[in-house]
Amino acid sequence: MTSSPAIAIHLSAAFAALLLGGAMLTMRKGTPRHRLLGRSWVLVMVATAISSFWIKTHGHYSWIHLLSVWVLFALGVAVVAIYKGNVRAHRRWITGTYVGLAAAGIFTLLPQRLLGALVWRTVGFM
Hints:
With 126 residues, the protein is mostly helical. It has one domain. Helix content is 74%, strand content 0%. It starts with a helix and ends with a helix. It comes from Noviherbaspirillum sedimenti.
């Protein structure tokens, strides 16, 4: 499979966000390490969202690009919340964004999707 640089950036950033976010779920919150990894997670999520705008179906944006706009909004709200000391709101927005990332990853692996077809063919299920 050949892919555009935008797809490669998007997949790499999304995969990094999935791994980093998963690791952060298991660690103690509020530590300097948590803050450093959290900033890194926000950056790779921003890269994931922004890179999606260069990935179009038949040259056009689709409804899924609205999710990228939503992710950028949610990340902004989460960052503002933690700077204001609202840990509860921060946790809710970050958790929701991570769940959305995981759901998008699962839907990407459906057999009728490009990446899903490639993965399932590679492992011998198609």
